[in-house]
Design brief:
The chain is mainly α and about 70 residues long. It has a domain at about 1-40. Helices cover about 45% and strands about 0% of the residues. The chain has 2 helices and no strands. It has helices at about 15-35, 55-65.
Length: about 70
């Protein structure tokens, strides 16, 4: 994990400069990750609708309609 800090010169009347800098930073980090085959992991949740497990949701819905 790492942190990114931005030092942006304040320009009165133009708060969008800060948002543009943040956006450019995120895009550059993503580009660097892609160029170096780095992926960002995220939690995966699996929901099982069958009592015994392994049944597809489509099959469960068909049985419920009968």
């Amino acid at each position: 994990m790492f942190s990114v800090r931005y030092w942006v010169q304040y320009i009165p009347g133009n708060p969008l400069v800060y948002l543009q800098v943040i956006s450019d930073g995120i895009k550059n980090i993503k580009k660097a990750y892609d160029e170096n085959d780095i992926t960002i992991t995220f939690p995966i949740r699996t929901i099982d609708f069958g009592i015994k497990g392994g049944e597809s949701l489509a099959d469960m819905l068909k049985q419920a309609k009968k």
